[in-house]
Design goal:
326 residues; D-Maltodextrin-Binding Protein, domain 2; three-stranded antiparallel β-sheet; six-stranded mixed β-sheet; alpha/beta; 2 domains
Length: 326
């Protein structure tokens, strides 16, 4: 099934990558609806708005942001899957699109058949592992040692819900550190952050930008970073490799664009080209870096291969965590 899926994604993306802006000069001739399947103000929403504003500046293309939150992005994603494939509806989404396809038995879309990957706006540099202030550990080694003294009473970690990228990242860390943890899911990022700040869970994976104010006010303590290099915002937090956890490099979330299957290849090529220009511009690149992201803007075919790799990686972690797959 996986071979069929990657062939489907890559072949759809390959045919999308041959057109130029000049070859699609009549597109776009009306506003493009960018569906964001999360609330306004979050990371995915913010990056989508930043990039579309830059595209408008550089090409004149206009966008309407349509926030459709709910069901870990499934509601907004399904709306795009059902949309007319004319290039005027685009999904601005995180890895939740892939995770829903792996986990959701009733997800109202088929990742393999209903979407064509366009490009990736940016990839997070990594997650910060933080512990509640009262937990008596200051390093990953101390955390692992403490966990071993707890027996069946496992240390707890919070996430914004079952099946999101932070859940997978946390389970991946637990697997690599050989330290079983107890998952405590919350209904969104805000209550999960409130829980760790109030000391209701022991640890949590978070993006550096999100956790910064909580570190400043002393509510949580950073002990490691999952990126391949140390975080610029938290240079004192060692990488997982430095902290003694081998093969535990976890890039942060990504924000990518998808369109309904059947969308004209010229429109897909134009969108990918304009996103690439936007994220490489000094203004947008600076915003991405400040937010803990690396600018991306890869081709549709490259993004399709990236999505397949994410599918395989998440599937392995979820199986090891004994989380039931679709």
């Amino acid at each position: 099934m996986q071979l069929r899926m990657v062939k489907c994604l890559v072949s759809a993306a390959l045919v999308a990558g041959t057109a130029s802006f000049a070859g699609a000069q009549n597109y776009p001739n009306k506003p493009i609806r960018l569906v964001v399947p999360f609330d306004a103000g979050g990371t995915v929403d913010t990056l989508g708005r930043v990039v579309t504003a830059q595209i408008t500046k550089q090409s004149g293309a206009r966008f309407i942001i349509d926030n459709r939150p709910g069901a870990n992005s499934a509601i907004g994603s399904a709306a795009v899957a059902r949309a007319t494939p004319d290039g005027y509806t685009v999904l601005n989404v995180s890895p939740s699109l892939v995770l829903n396809a792996l986990l959701g038995k009733d997800v109202p879309y088929d990742l393999h058949k209903d979407f064509v990957p366009v490009t990736n706006l940016g990839i997070g540099q990594g997650y910060l592992l933080v512990v509640r202030q009262e937990l008596p550990v200051k390093s990953v080694r101390e955390l692992v040692a403490l966990a071993k003294t707890r027996g069946d009473k496992r240390l707890t970690y919070g996430t914004p819900g079952i099946g999101n990228a932070l859940h997978v990242a946390s389970e991946f860390f637990a697997m690599k550190a050989a330290t079983p943890l107890l998952h405590v899911p919350y209904k969104g990022s805000a209550p999960a952050l409130t829980a760790i700040a109030a000391g209701q869970v022991d640890l949590m994976m978070l993006s550096p930008a999100t956790v910064f104010p909580f570190v400043q006010n002393g509510k949580v303590r950073p002990i490691a970073f999952t990126g391949s290099e140390r975080s610029k915002e938290f240079p004192n937090a060692p990488t997982m490799q430095e902290a003694g956890v081998e093969d535990c490099v976890i890039k942060g979330t990504w924000v990518g664009w998808f369109v309904p299957a059947g969308t004209p290849r010229k429109a897909i090529a134009v969108l990918a080209e304009e996103v690439n220009k936007a994220v490489q511009s000094p203004e947008v690149a600076k915003i991405l870096t400040t937010g803990g992201f690396d600018a991306d803007g890869r081709s549709p075919a490259e993004f399709a291969r990236f999505v397949e790799a994410e599918w395989q990686r998440y599937r392995e972690v979820l199986r090891n965590a004994k989380i039931e797959l679709k």
